[in-house]
Write a structure and sequence with these properties.
Layout (H helix, E strand, L loop, with lengths): L11 H14 L17 E6 L5 H12 L3 E5 L12 H9 L5 E6 L4 H8 L5 E7 L5 H15 L6 E5 L6 H12 L3 E5 L15 E3 L2 H4 L5 E4 L15 H8 L3 H4 L7 E3 L12 H4 L6 H21 L2
Parallel strand pairs: 1-2, 1-3, 3-4, 5-6, 5-8, 6-7, 8-9
Helix pairs in contact: 1-5, 1-11, 2-11, 5-6, 5-11
């Protein structure tokens, strides 16, 4: 694996290897577990053109815990404000001597463009490109499911909410179906793209019909910043139809696992008592993101 641009087309063998490698990195650099030097002498650049808390900090910590030097870039305060293009910025940073670029951008395909224009020795990791893919988020979601439920094959996973604008949904669908899970996407008709059935998933628009069937519920954030108005009548109505609260939890399987890629909108897609409850693995996802991103960085740094 030379780059990680998305999970679409990745084999079950490759996905399973990343998950297995991530297991070996759990806890590295925490408490009594020492940091490692897998990336000693390597330079990792976080090239983020969109806001991020978990992904950016997670990649930075993961790289440092493996001994890499880390450069953090953001457009504000950079020559981007003077009109420098995305590719020119990346190539100038490349000229300083780097090994891995972690890129987040609002334009779908931006990481693929970098992989085309940067020197072949530079590895590119997609940290989210528009509404296209977010492969490491999906990997950490799948890792968390496997950790909690001991398998992926044969499980039913519900992706609930704003499917249309969710790069997390797309990457999860590719990864989960490849590993043998059944995926149900459920949301308002205006937030579920018409082509989604071609991705090998079941489509539903009534959450209460889906709840008893799912082993996992992944509650996707309503991405107000990406969508035009009028896609649903009001936040209150969205919450009534698709929000998961303690009443809805009574309709689920007793051991249903609750996931939610942050940030979460408390009181919209998920209530506080569910987000903080015993079936929630939301903070486990954040912890597992470090192990997954260490695995990705390590695998790319050793690939030829």
């Amino acid at each position: 694996m030379k780059h990680l641009l998305g999970l679409e087309g990745m084999s079950a063998t490759a996905l399973t290897r990343l998950l297995d490698v991530a297991e070996t990195y759990k806890g590295v650099g925490v408490g009594d577990q020492p940091k490692r030097d897998d990336l000693k002498g390597k330079v990792v650049v976080n090239l983020f053109y969109e806001p991020s808390t978990r992904t950016r900090m997670s990649f930075g910590l993961a790289a440092r815990r493996l001994g890499a030097d880390v450069l953090d870039f953001s457009p504000s305060g950079s020559s981007t404000a003077k009109g420098e293009s995305f590719i020119d910025t990346a190539k100038n940073i490349e000229a300083m001597g780097i090994d891995i670029v972690v890129v987040r951008h609002s334009s779908p395909g931006a990481p693929h463009m970098l992989a085309k224009y940067l020197h072949p020795h530079v590895r590119v990791i997609n940290a989210g490109d528009g509404a296209h893919e977010h492969p490491t988020q999906a990997l950490l979601d799948i890792f968390t499911i496997r950790q909690r439920l001991q398998r992926i094959d044969g499980l039913t996973v519900g992706l609930i909410g704003d499917i249309m604008h969710s790069r997390v949904a797309r990457s999860n669908i590719h990864g989960l179906t490849t590993l043998g899970a059944k995926v149900i996407v459920c949301g308002p008709t205006t937030l579920v793209p018409s082509e989604v059935e071609r991705w090998g998933v079941e489509v539903a628009h009534r959450l209460d019909d889906v709840l008893p069937r799912c082993d996992v519920l992944n509650l996707l954030r309503v991405q107000f910043e990406r969508q035009r108005s009028g896609l649903f009548p009001s936040i209150r109505e969205y919450r009534l139809l698709f929000g998961v609260d303690s009443d809805r939890m009574r309709k689920t399987k007793p051991n249903v696992l609750i996931l939610a890629p942050g940030p979460i909108n408390r009181g919209v897609e998920i209530s506080p008592e569910v987000a903080d409850g015993p079936r929630s693995a939301i903070l486990d996802q954040v912890t597992n993101g470090l192990a997954v991103r260490m695995a990705v960085l390590s695998e790319l740094s050793t690939s030829t």
